[in-house]
Please model this.
Amino acid sequence: MESVGFETADWLRVVMYKSCFEFIKGLNPVLLDVLEISAGPQWRREFAFGSYAETGFPGFDICSEALPSRYDLIIADQVFEHLPRPTHAARNVFEMLKPGGYFIVATPFLVKVHNVPIDCNRWTETGLSFLLQDAGFDPERIQTHSWGNRACLIANLKRWRKPGFFGSLRNEPDFPVAVWAFAQKAA
Model:
């Protein structure tokens, strides 16, 4: 298995993190004002952002409120599937982005229901693109991605698995366990 430096990541997220981290590296992260919705350790551990703010879910309700600050990059990693009104949340993210700013959204697809505190949504790449378009993003400024395979799908039916020795990163497009997108607000 290729080493991607995500030894603490669950198998279903390894390829997604690699893709997202490569994308952020191209944005010159030390210059970015970043907001993470429902923050985890992965992004801060990997990057020294110009500034970094975080919110906690469900304490901060991204579905019904936007912060007054504007950001170059907003990250929502494994949170949108838990939102009762994801279109409202995506519109609030759009509002909080600076012109030319980016939104990274990552969600599971073929995984078990995990109520933290609720579990409401799943999107294919096409569905995620339409969600972002409904929020105001131009379809030409949305890149969607997905990854998965049957072995990872089966392995994650009972609990979140680490990749391990047999954790193939081969992609089978008909079995996506992770779906993510990069969307840019027009300048």
